[in-house]
Structures
1.
Amino acid sequence: MTTTAEVAPVIELRGVSRRFGSAQEGQPQGGPVTALSEVDLTIRPGDHLAITGSSGAGKSTMLNILGLLDRPSAGEYYFDGVATSSLRDRRRSALRGSSIGFVFQSFHLLPGRSVLGNVLLAFVYGSVPRSERLRRASEALDRVGLSHRLAFSPATLSGGERQRVAIARSVCGGAKVLLADEPTGNLDRVNADAILTLFDELNADGLTLVVITHDAAVAERARRRIGLADGKLTELGATP
Amino acid sequence: MTGRTRFGPTALIGEALEGVGSKPSRLLITVLGTMVGIGALVLTIGLGQTAGGQLTAHFDSVAATHVEAAPTSVKGADGDGHASSALPRDAAARASALAGVDASVLLGEVPLGDSTVTAVPVHDPSSPTLTPPPVWAADGDLLGALDGRLAEGRFFDGGHQQRADRVAVLGKEAADKLGIHSLAGGPSVFIGSHAYSVIGILESVDTRRELQSAAIVPLAAAERDFPDLPPPGILALKIAVGATDLVSHQVPIALDSAEPQNITVAASPTTTALEGGVRNDLDAVFVLIGVITLLAGGLGIANVTLLGVSERTGEIGLRRALGATRPQIAAQFALESLITGALGGTIGAAVGVAVVVAVSAASGWTPVLDLALALGSTLLGGLVGLAAGAYPALKAARTEPADALRS
Ligand SMILES: Nc1ncnc2c1ncn2[C@@H]1O[C@H](COP(=O)(O)OP(=O)(O)O)[C@@H](O)[C@H]1O
Ligand SMILES: [Mg+2]
C-alpha cells in the first residue's frame, strides 16, 4: 500500500492569509480582522479531514477559500496543481462547478423544486451531457437512500433527508473534493450519524472530504484533524 | 481537466422560467403592475381609436347636416385623380327639389390667370400688387347651404343670375385685403378688366371657410366674363338631420340618373378635419395615462425583483457554488424580470382588447384596434421588465458567494 505522501496534493495552501475590514472591503467594523494568518496546508486525494475551532476562529473563511468562493489576501492556493489566485472569475467558476462539492449547515435547497430538481441543479452550469444527467442524479439519490422521494418537495422532508439531498447534489457532478461547513449543525444525533456514515462511504470510494465542525464527535470520524485558532492551523492528530 | 461551462440559452431560459414560476403569488403581484399599465394603454388607445372611428361614422351618417356632392374621381393610368363626369349646370336647383335637402349651392373657383383683383382700376402695371384674393362663382343658396351670415348688404339672387349681373359678395378677409370696409359709396372690385359692384360682405361661413378670403360672383356672370371657367365641381348641401342616407342615395340619381355612381356624396371636409383634431388630442391624453401607469408598473417590477434578489441571496450563493459566473447570475435575474414584464404585457393587452371589444359590443360600435399595438404589448412589457430588472440583476451578480452562503 502506498503512503498518501507520494500522491500529488489536490489542495495546497502556501502562506495563505485572509484579512477583512481593510479599505477595499468597505465596512471596517472596529478595525481589520485577520481571519486566516499565513496558513500552510496540504490535502491529498482521498483524505478525510476535519477542521475544528471555536466560533470566529476562521473555519468558514478557510472553507470559502478552499471552495474558490473567496480569494486569499496573500499567499497562493493550488487546486489540483493549478495556481488559482491569477484565475479569472469564469475559470474559477468552472473549476468550482466541476470539481468541488459543497454541503452547508442550512442545506440550501430551492423550496420551489422537487428533490430530483434540486439535484439536477448541479448540472445546470456544468458540462455533463443532457442525456446522462437524469441517470446520474437518480444514482446519487439512490446512493443517499432517497430514490423513493424524487418528486417530493424539500419542505416535506426531515432535516436529515434534506442534507442527504444536498449531498447527492454535491457529488453527482463528479466532484473531487467535498467541502462541508457544519454539515450536522442542524441535525439530531441519529440523523447526524447517518450523514457521517454516508461521508465515510463516499470517502471510501475515493472522494476527498473536508469537514468543518465545532463538534468533537464529528471530528473523531475524520482520519486527520486540524485545529484552527486565531487564524492559525495546528495538526491535532491522525487516525491511520 | 475542468469542464467547459455549457450554460446556453436553453438552460438560461429554463432556469429563468423556474425562477419566475417558483413563487406564483409573488409573480401575480409583479405581473399586475405591467398588466394594468399595458392593459390601460391598450384600452385607452383602443377605445380612443374605436370611439374616434365611431365619431367620424356618427357625423357621416346621423348628425351631418353639411354634405357635398362631387363628380367621383377616378384614378387614371397616370395615377392622378380625374373627375369622371361634371355636375350639371342646374345641379343646385335639382338638388334643392329633393326631400331632406334644405339648401344647395353650386361652387367653382374662377381661374384668374394673369388677371388682378383690385378695388380701384389698375392704370400702372408696375405698381406693387398683392396676391389677388381668389374668385369663386356660385349658383344657388350659398348662405343657406354653408350656414353663412352677412355682415352687411345682401347676397345675389336668382334675378342677378338671370341677368348675369356683375355683382360680387366679398368674404370678410377679402374685403379687408381690398380695403373695402363698408358698402357706403357703392364700392366695386375690378376682376381683370371687369368692374363688379360689391353688394354684400360676408361675416362668416360654417363650412368652406376658404370663401371668407374670396370674392364670390354669380355663376352666370363668371361664365360670360371668363370663357376658361370649367364646370363647377362642388355642390354644397345643407340637409335635414338624419337625411344623410337618403341624400347620399337620391342626390347622385337627381344629378346623373343614367350613371349615379359618377357622383359621390361625402361629409363637408371642414367637419371631418375638425373632428380629426379633437380625436388626436384625445389620443394623446389616453396614451399619456397609459404610459404613466406603465412606468408605475415598471417601478413595481423593479421593487419586487430587488426584494427577490435579497430574499434569494442563498440561492445566488448556491448557484455560484455550483459553478455559475457573475454574468450568468445577472442574465438569469434580467431574464426573469423580462419574462415577468412580457407576461404582464401579454395579459394586459388581452384584457385591454377584451374590454375594448366588450365596450364596443355594448355600444354597437365596430372595435378599431391597431394590431401592432396588441402584438407590441408583449415586446413593450418585456422591455419594461428588462429595464426594471437591470439594477436588481446587477446587484445579484455583485453578491459575494461567501457572504451569500453565510446563513
Ligand atoms: N465578510 C467578512 N467581513 C468582515 N469580517 C469577516 C467576514 N467574514 C468573516 N469575518 C471575520 O473573520 C473571522 C472568522 O470568521 P469565520 O471564518 O466565519 O469563523 P468561524 O466560521 O470559524 O466561526 C471572524 O472574526 C469574523 O467576524
Ligand atoms: Mg462558520
2.
Amino acid sequence: MIEHTQTDVRFPEETLKQVREIISRYPEGRQKSAILPILHLAQNEWNWLSAPVMDYVATLLDIQPIEVYEVATFYTMFNLEPVGKYVLEVCRTGPCCLRGAEQLIEHIENKFGIQVGQTSPDGMFTLKTVECLAACGGAPCLQVRLKREGGIHKYYENLTPEKVDGLVEKEWV
Amino acid sequence: MAIKILTEHINKPGIETFEVYRQHGGYAAVEKALKKMTPDEVVEEVKKSGLRGRGGAGFPAGMKWGFLAKPEGKPRYLVCNADESEPGTFKDRHLMAHSPHTLIEGMIVASYALGAKTSYIYVRGEMLYVIRILEKAIAEAYAKGFLGKNILGTDYSLDLYVHPGGGAYICGEETALLESLEGKRGNPRNKPPFPAVSGLYNCPTVVNNVETIAAVSWIINNGGEEYAKVGVGRSTGTKLISACGNINKPGVYEIELGVPVEEFIYSDEYCGGIAGGKKLKAVVAGGSSVPVLPANLITKTASGENRLMTYESLSDGGFATGTMLGSGGFIVFDEDQCIVRNTWNFSRFYHHESCGQCSPCREGTGWMEKVLHRIEYGHGHAHDIDLLVDVARKIEGNTICPLGDAAAWPVGSAIRHFRDEFEWHIRHPHEATRKGAVYRKEAVLV
Ligand SMILES: Cc1cc2nc3c(=O)[nH]c(=O)nc-3n(C[C@H](O)[C@H](O)[C@H](O)COP(=O)(O)O)c2cc1C
Ligand code: SF4
Ligand code: FES
C-alpha cells in the first residue's frame, strides 16, 4: 500500500473557493462551525486525515490544530489512518442483523482474508463496521464513499453475499 | 383512503423539483404565512394543531415555540434536526430524499414564525447524497424568491443552510447537535439553560425534527383545528413510521395516529405481516431506545384493549407493560430471533455512541455490553441478570442527557419480559451457543 506522507498539503483552487463559501454560511467569528464540512472535503481529497492535513484545516479556519484533532477523533466518519481505495462500511446494528448483516460481514472478511478494521493486501478494500445508517428498511446494507462521485457515500441496500461479489467485480474497481 | 399530510405527493415524478412541487400546491403555506399572517398567528395555529415533536420525545411543538426568548439585539435560530441515527428510524431520510421542498417550505414558515433570519438543517454526514438533494432544492427556492432577501416582496428575509454531521449518534441530542454545529465535539450541554434561552452561539434557538417542521405547512394551509381533527385525542395528525425487521414490506408509512398496532403489522397496506409466514415474537415500537414488548403485549394492552399507534396507547401500562411511540422506528422480531443477542447488540451500540462525559453512562454502558456479551457467548453467571438490572437502574436518571436512559431501557425491558430467555442462556450455555439456536416459548408468540 502506498503510504501517503501528505507533506505538501493544499486544496486545489476550486476546493478553496468552496471552503470560502462554506465559511460564509456562519456568522462572523464563528468560522469554526465550518470544521465538519471542511474535514469531509479534506477526506475526499486525501482519503484520510493525517496530522499535516488536520493542521492545514486549522490554518484555513484560523484555529489551533488541537481543535481540529479533538473534532476529527470524535466523529466516526473520519479515517485517521490510511485506508484502501474503497472503504466498505457495513451496518452492524440490530435491525440489519435481523436480516443477515452478520453473515454479510463474515462473507466480506473471508472474501478478502481480512478482519474488520483491516485493508486487503492489494490496497483496494478496507472493511469497517458502522452503526445504523438509517437504511434499516433495506437491511442489510453498507456504504461506500465514491471519490468519482464527489465523495458521496453511496448506499447499497438489500444485500446478499452474491450481490457484494458482483459489486466487487463491476462497481468498486 | 387514509389521509396523507406529508407524503401525499411523494411518489409524483419530479416532485423533488420546485416546479412540480409548486404544481401540487407547494409553497402556498409560505405565501399565506408571510403575506396574510403575523408570526404570532403562525405560532398560534401550531399550538392549536396539537402537533407534537416527531424526533422522539413528543413535546408539543407550539409550546416549545412559545418558550423562545426574544431579547433585543440577539439573533434567533431555527435548527432542523436531521441527524436521524436512532436504530430502526429512516423516515426523515425518506422524506428529504424524495420531497426536499416539503422540508424547505416548512423551514421557511417556521423560521418566519420564530423570527429567525438564518436557519440550519443539520443532516447526518453519512447522508451526503441527501445533502446534495436539499442544496439543489434550496438553490431553486432562492432563485424563485422564496429564500433570501425580502421573500415574495415582503420585508422578511431568510438564509437557509445545510450542515453535515461527522458520524455520531449523540449529535441527534439537541444540545450535542448545537455543539457540533459550532464546530466542536458532540458533548451534550447541561440544562438549564435550555436552547430556547441559550442555544446556537448562545442565542435563543428552537431545534425541531424534520417531520415536525414538515407538518407545519399543512397546518398553515388548513388550520390548526383541522389538523387536530386528524388522529386520536392528544395524538393529533399523522406520523411517519419506518417499519423494518422480519416483515414482508419494510418501508416508510404515513399513518393517521390511532391505527391499531395489529392492523399496522398485518395489513397489506402497511407491514404486510411477518415474513416467511413465521410467528411474531417481539416489537421495538419507537426506535432502539424504547422498551421492547413481547407479541402479546404489543397488539393488546395488559387490560386486554387493542393497542393503537398513538403516544398514549403505546405507553399504556407504563414501563411495566407498555412502551413508547418514540421516533416511529418500528422493529419487528420473528420467532427465530434471539432477544439476548439483540439486547447485547443494542448495548454495544449505546456503549459505542456514549460521548463519555458522565461516568454512569460511559462505564455503565460498557459493563452492560460486557455482561450481555458473556451471557450470549455462553459464559454468563447466575447473578448476571440481577447485575444487569442493577447497572441499568444506576444509569437511569443519573446522566447529563437522555442517552443514559436510552441505553438502560432496552436492557431493563428485555429482562422484564424475556427473563427466562436470559436464564436459559446461562443454564444451558452449550445449547444456547449452537449456531441458529433460539429459545422458544410458544405462549409469547402471536
Ligand atoms: C441520544 C439522543 C439521540 C437523538 N437523536 C435524534 C435524532 O436523530 N433526530 C431527532 O429529531 N431527534 C433526536 N433526539 C431528540 C432531540 O434531542 C430533540 O428532542 C428533538 O430534535 C426535538 O425535536 P422535536 O420536538 O421536533 O421532536 C435525540 C435525543 C437523544 C437523547
Ligand atoms: S448520558 Fe452518555 S451520551 Fe449523554 S452526556 Fe452523559 S456520557 Fe454523554
Ligand atoms: S440497522 Fe442497519 S441501517 Fe439501521
3.
Amino acid sequence: MWLYILKRVLQGLLTVWFIATATFFAMHNVPGDPLTNDRAMTETTRANLEAKYGLDQPITTQYLIFLRNLARGDFGISFVQENREVNDIIREHFPVSAILGVLAVVFAATGGVLFGALTALYRNRLPDYLIMFLVILGISVPSFVVAALSQLSLVSLNTLVGFTVLPVAGWGTVMHMLVPALVLGLSTMAYLTRLMRSSMLEVTSSDYVRTAKSKGVPPTRIFTRHQLRNAILPVVTVLGPAIAAITTGGFVVELVFAIPGLGRYFVEAVQQLDYTVIMGTTVFYGAFLVFMVILVDVVYGFIDPRVRLDS
Amino acid sequence: MSDLTAASFAPLSDQQPSQVIARPSLSYWQDAWSRLQANRRALVSLYIVIGLLLFTVFGPVVWPVDPAMQDIDQISQPPGTDRTATLVADYEPWFGTSGLPGTGLRLAEKATSQAVRLQWDAVDGASGHRVYRNLFPIGPELSYGIPMAEFLNNDTLYFEDRLDLQPGRFYYVVVALDERGLITDRYQSISVDVERVTTRTEALERGLITESNAVQIGDKITLAWHPLGTDYLGRDLLARLMAGARVSLFIGIGAPFLFVLFGVVYGSAAGFMGGRIDQLMMRFADFVVALPFLLFMILFKIAFGIGPGESGVFPMLVALVVLLWPATARLVRGQILQIREQGYISASELLGASTPYLIMRHMIPNTLGVVLVTVTFAIPSAIFTEAFLSFIGMGVAPPTPSWGSMSNEGIKTMLTTPHELFFPALFISLTVLAFNLLGDGLRDALDARMRNVE
Amino acid sequence: MKAAEENVDPATPLLTVEDLQVEFDTYGGTVQAVRGVSFSVDQGQTLAIVGESGCGKSVTVQSIMGLIPTPPGRITAGSARLRGHQILGRSTVGGKEIRGAEIGMIFQDPMTSLNPTMTIGDQIAEPLQIHRGYSARDAFTEAIRLLELSKIPEATKRAQQYPFEFSGGMLQRAMIAMALSCKPSILIADEPTTALDVTIQAQILDLMQELQKETGMAIILITHDLGVVARMADEVAVMYAGKVVEYGSADDVFYRSAHPYTVGLKEAMPTNDPARQHELKPIDGSPPDLFAPPAGCGYCPRCPYAMQICSDRQPQDHNLRGHHSASCWLHHAQSDSRPETLFFKDTH
Ligand SMILES: Nc1ncnc2c1ncn2[C@@H]1O[C@H](COP(=O)(O)OP(=O)(O)OP(=O)(O)O)[C@@H](O)[C@H]1O
Ligand code: SF4
Ligand SMILES: [Mg+2]
C-alpha cells in the first residue's frame, strides 16, 4: 500500500515537472515580452528590470533557474505588481477557489449519486424522465449561461421578496458560496448522475444481486448493502477528473459572481501578460490536480477491496 | 386421434439439416444504421445536426445580411418589435434657444431617437444642476439613474441627450447642486416617451427609400427587418448567428476531427509497434493528459498569438488538437491490442499479409465505430471550450462573431435585452444536445458492448 | 420439523412443478422460454435437469425462486407446490421465507455471483441474520463454522477475505455454505461446476452429496454434463426448447432412453467406458427459435427419425414404465417405427 502510494507520488512529481516544462516553453514562445507592456522606459531601466527577472540570461539558464526555484516552491515575483510574490497571490486567492471547488465537488458527488440512484430505482417512470431531462439540460447548457441565469433569478428573487435572500455576487459568508458552488458543480453533477444511473442499472442486473435475492435479502437491504457500494465505484474513479474540471471551470463562476478566487486572478494575469503569475498559477494548478487524482485513486483503494492489496 | 393415418407416421422425406434462420443477416453498418433509425431521439438529433449544417452553409445565401453592418436605428431590438419610424430632417445642433413654452423640467421638442432636448427653470437656490437618466421611475430610494451631464452654474438650463436612445420610456431627473457642487435633495423629474425616427439621408443610405420616392418629412417608413433582433451595436443577430456558426462549428467539428485523426495515428502506431516504444509513447500521452486543460488552452492561445487581421480561430484549433489527442490514442491502442489478441490478425499475419493490408482489412473496420463515437462526443466539448474561451475573452478576436463571444456580449445586457444572450446560448445548447444524443445513439447502434444498460 | 409439514399428506412430494410456462417480452417479440414444464422432487433426492444451452433450465428454476425479472419476464401458467403449498409468486410459505430459508440456490459462475465488495463471511452471515434473527457476531461465527463444513481451510481468516482473494472452487464452496446456511429443504444448483476445473468439479459434487446425506435436503441440479448426471441424479428431466421431453429415474433415462434427443445427447457425450466407445456425434443444427415456437415437435428438424406428423403436431407425453415418460410420436400406438437405439414400452 505504502509502496503504491510512494510510486504514485513519484510519478506525480514527474508529471508536475512535465507540466512545468510545458508551461515554461509555452510562455517563452509568447510574442512580445512582459516589459514592453505599456510603460515606456529607458534602456537602463529596461536592462535593470531584465536583470531583475533574469530575462537577460540564455533560455536554458532561465529554464534551469526556473526549475531550481520551483523545487524550492518559489514561483518568483509578479511582473505587474512588482513587490508581490506569486506565492502570496496563490496563498491569498487559492483558498477561495478551493472552498468553492470543494463545495461544488460535494454538491456534484452527492447530487450525482442520489439522483443517479433515484433514476435507476424509478427507471422509465416519471422521476427518471424528469431527472434525466434536467441532466440533459445540465450537460447542454454552457456554464456561463447557467451562471448568468442563476444570478438573474437571484436578482429577481431578491426584488420579489424585498430583501436579500441570497447575495447576488461577492464573497465572504456561506450565503455567498451556495449558488456559485451549485452552478459550478451542476454539469459535473449531471455527468455523474448519468454515470451513476447506468452503473446502478448494471449492478441491478448483476449476478451477485441475483444471489442476494436468492438468499431472501429484502429489497431495501439489497439496495444499501449490495447495490449502492458497487454502483458508486465507477463514480469514484471519475472523481479525479471531475475535480479537475470543477477547479479549472471555476473561472467563469468566479468572473460572473465576482468572487476573488485564483481563477479570476489567472484570467487577469493572462490579460496583463504577467509571466510569473501565469506560470506559477499554471504549475500550481497542475500540481494540485495531479495530486488530487492520486488522492482519489488512493481513496478508491479503500472502497474497492480488489485494489487494496494490489500494489 | 382418429384423424391419424399411417401416412402421418411415414418418415419425413426432405429433412432440412437445421432450422433456417428467419431474420436476414445484415452487415455491421447496415445493422447499425437500422438500429440508429429505431432510436427516435438519435434520429431527431441527426436531423438537428443536418439542419445546423445547412443553416451554417446555406443560411448566408438565404439571408445575405452583412453580420458586421450596424443598424443604428435599431440597437438591441428584440425580435418582433415595431419597425416603423418617422422620417425627420437631418440633425442640426441645438443650443437651448428654441423650444416649446412651459415651466419646470420640460421637453423642448418632441422626443425622438435622434435627440431628447430638455429645458428647465433654475431650481430655487441652486447653484448648478446635474441631469440623470433612468429606465425606471425615481421610486422611494431616490434612484436617479446614470448621470448624464453636470452644470456648475445657472447659465445652462438645457440639455440635449443623444446617447443610445431607443424607442420607449425614459425618466429624466434634474437635481439641484449646492455652491460646493454637491447634490441636494431638490429635483425635478419628467418621463419622456421616445419615438423612433430616422433621417432622410440615413434612409437613403440604407435603401429604405429612394430619391424618386415621394416620401416627405414626417411620413412613416418601415425599417430593415431583423428576424431575431439586433445586438448592442445594431447588428443583425440572425446574420451574426450564421457567421458565428461558421466559427463555432469549424472549431467544434474541425478540432475533434483533427485530434481524433492524430490520436488514431499515434495510438495505432503505439499499438502496432508494441514493447518499449509503446510504453514510451503511452507515458508521453499520460503526461499530456495531466496538463490542466483550460489553463493550457489559454496559455497556448497566447503563446501561438493572434497576428494582426487574424481571428484567432487557428491558434484555438492548434491548442485543442495539441491537448486532446491522448484520449483517442489510448482508446485506439487498446482496441488494436485487443484485436491483435483476438487472434485473427495473427492468423493473417502468418499468411504473410502486409501491414497496410492488415490495417485496411482488419483494424480500420474494427476501430471505426469507436472512433466515430469518440468524434461525436468530442464535438460538444470542443464547442463548449470555444464558447468558454470566447466568454472569458480568450477566444476568437472581435469583430469575428462566434456563439461564445456573442453570449459574452449578450450577458452584459442580459437584464434589459435578454434576447442577445438567449439566441447564441440556445444555439450552443441545441448543438451540444444534438451531438450528445447522436453520440449516445451511435454508441448504442454501433456496439452492443459499449451500450450502457438503458 | 414444522407445523406446516404436518397437515400435509406424507405421500405428497416435497416440491411439485406442474405445467410451468414462462415468457419474456423482448424487442424482437415474445420469447416462450418455458412451455409447460412438470417435475417433482422428494426429500433426500437429486433431480437433474439436462438440456442444451437456452432450453429454459435456468428460467424454470428461477421462476420457482421468484427470480425472474418482471418485466420483461412473466409466468403465464402453472404451479409450483412446496409440500402442497403454492409458492409461485409468493415469498413465504407457512410463515417461512422461501428464498434462502426453504430453498437455497447456487449459480454457475461463482466469480461474479458473489458481491465483490463484501467479505465472504458477511455474505454467508447475511441470510442467518435475516431469516434466523442472529446477531451480526453470532452470524459471523456461524458463517465460519459453515465454511469449515464446506471444507475451506483456515476458515476464520478466509471469512474476512473478499471474493477476489478466493479461487473459483473455493468460491463455489463458499456459495454452497451460503446457500445452506439456513438449512433449506431444497438446494437448487444451476450448473454449479461448469466454470470449474475437472478435479475441482468432482470435489464440489462430493461436497454436495455429503451435505445432502447429512441434511436430507433435495437437490435440483442443472447441468449440461451427462457424466455429472450419472454420478449424482436419482431423477432426470431432459429439456428441449422449453419442454421436458423425457423424464424418469436416472437409470431409465440413461439405460432405457426413450427420446431421440436423449440419445443424441448421449452420443454427443465423451465417454471412457470401453464398451461404449463409439465416435462422438454432435447433434447437427440448433434448437428452434422460441420467438415462434414450432407447431410440431421442436426436435423435428434435427431428429433422425422424424415423421410427417412430427412437423405438424405436438407429441403427447407417453408413459412408459413407472413414472418414466417421453414426449415423442414414436411412442404413439399408431407408429410402427421402432429405432433400436430407443427404449419402447413393450421392449423386453
Ligand atoms: N431476461 C430475459 N429476457 C429475455 N429472454 C430471456 C431472459 N432470460 C432468459 N431468456 C430466454 O429464455 C431462454 C431460456 O434461457 P435459460 O437461461 O433458461 O437457458 P438455459 O437452459 O439455462 O441455458 P444455459 O445452459 O446457457 O444456462 C433463452 O432462449 C433466453 O433467450
Ligand atoms: S416427435 Fe418426431 S421429431 Fe420429435 S423426437 Fe419424436 S420422432 Fe423425433
Ligand atoms: Mg442457465
4.
Amino acid sequence: MSLPVHAQREGGSDRGPSSPFHPVDINHPTHIALVEPDTAFWGLVARDRLDETLAGGPLLETWRAKAADFAREMDMLRFHLKPSAVYFNATERCNLNCSYCYIPSDMRRGGTQMDRDRLLAALETLHGYFRGHMPADRLPQVIFHGAEPMLARDAIFAGIEAFKDRFRFGVQTNATLLDEEAIAFLTGHGVGIGLSLDGPTARIADRTRQRWNGDGVFDHVVRAIERLDGYPGFNVICTMTEENLPHLTQLVDFFHEKRVPACMLNVTRCTQPGARGLKGDDKAVSDAFLAALERTHTLYRETGRKLVVANFANILIAILAPTARRLMCDISPCGGGRSFFALAPDGALFPCSEFIGLDTFVGGNLFTDRIDDVLESAPFRKVIDRKVEDIEGCDVCPIRHFCGSPCPAEAHEMNGGMHRKGAFCAFYEEQVRYAMRLIADGRHQDFLWDGWDEGTEVACAIGA
Amino acid sequence: MSNSTTVKTEAQPETRRPDVIAIRKTCDAEGTGLSHYVLMDKQVKR
Ligand code: SF4
Ligand code: SF4
C-alpha cells in the first residue's frame, strides 16, 4: 500500500465513509499515519491494524471525545493571537552582499539608519503598545535584525541598556562586527544571538556569504562561535542552497564539534529573484536535510550532547503539541503581522522582515500611526488572511497544519499570489513524514530540547 | 504532487512498537513564536 500525502480527498474511498482520518504513507516499514487535518490530530497505526483502527478503538474514541477541544486550540493558535514580538531593523545597511538576501541591494549599500534617540523613541512606543495587551509577567521580544544590526551598534546597545527590564532582546548578526566587547555586552545582558554560517569550510561558506568586494567572512563567524562557547542563548543559521547541500552533514559535524547548542537549517526563501536560482530542488534539499538530521542523532548517541536543529524540532513540536510551537512559518496564517511584525529604520511597519523592500506591504508607520490600526491595514490583512484552506492543493492536504504552506512573501513574489503555494511543498511533506517516522520509532525526544514540553499537559497518550 | 521516494536509511527499532501510537500535548497558545530567522528560546539567565 502506498499512499502519498495527498491521496485522500474529502469522502475519498480509502477510508471509511464516516472516518475523519486521512491515511498518509510515511514510508515506515510497519506504521502508517492517520491524520485528522482540521484538528491536527493523528495516530500512527500498524499497517495490518489499519482497518480495525479506522472502525473503532482508542484513537477514534479520543478524537470523538476531544475533537472540539483540539479544534478550539487550533482556532486560538491560528486566529486569536496578538503580537508579542517585533523584528526591529535599525539599519538598512549591510557590510555583506549574500547571494540570497531578501533586502534589495541598493538599500543594503546606502539605506537609512536609526540614530540613538530615534531608536529609544521607537522602543518606548513599542513598549506602550505591548503593555496594552500582554500580561505583566511576560516580556515582549525585540529582535534586532538585518540588514546588519551591528552597524547601528551604539544605538542598539543604548536601547538594550535602557529597556533591559521591559523586553527580551535578540540580535541576528553576520558576526563580522562581533568583537570581544560586543560579545561581553550581549551575553552580559542575556541577549539571544543568532549567527549565520553556510558551510563547514571557508571554501563552501564563502560561496553564498561574502562582502561587497567578494571576500568571505568564514573566519569571523568561526571566531564568534568560539567566543560564544558555553553561552546557551546563541544559535547558528545555515541557509541550504545548491552550493552547500552536499556538505550539510559535514556542517553538522562542525557545529557539534564547536559545541553550538542549536542551529537552523533553513530552505532558501525565494522572495527575491536572486535566491531562486540557488534554492536546490525539493528532493535534493530533503535528502541532504534528512541526512543531516540523522547525523545529529548519531552524534548525540556517540557523545550524549545534542545539536538541536530548531526548525525541525519545531515541526516535531507542531505534531506533538501544536500550541507549543515556537516558530511561526509552519502554521497558517503564519506569524507575520499576527504574532510579530517588522519595523524598518524609517518607521515603516511590515508584517514580517521577509516583506521589507516590498513597498506595497507597508501597513503604516510606527511614528505616525497606531499599531492597532496598522495591524488592520490592507497590506497586513492580505498576509494575516492567507490560510491553507484557500490554497489549491493545501486545502486538501492532511498535513496542512504541520506545514502551513510558507511563505506568503515567497508565494506572492515568486508564484503570483497569496493563494499559491510557496517554493517547497514536497520538501515540507518529506519533513513531516520523517518526523512521524521518528515518533513511530520512539526516537523523537532525541531531536528535541530537554524540557521542551515543560508547562504542557497530556491530552492524549496512546502507545506512548 | 510528489509520491515519496525517501530512502530508508534510518535505524529501525529492535522491538515491535505499539500498534497504535498517538500523542497530543497542550498548553496555552502564547504566540511567542517567531519566524525562521532567529530563534529565541527561554530567557537566557543573566
Ligand atoms: S512564512 Fe514568511 S512571512 Fe510568514 S513568518 Fe515565515 S518568513 Fe515571515
Ligand atoms: S505546501 Fe504544505 S500544506 Fe500545502 S500541499 Fe504542500 S505540504 Fe501540504
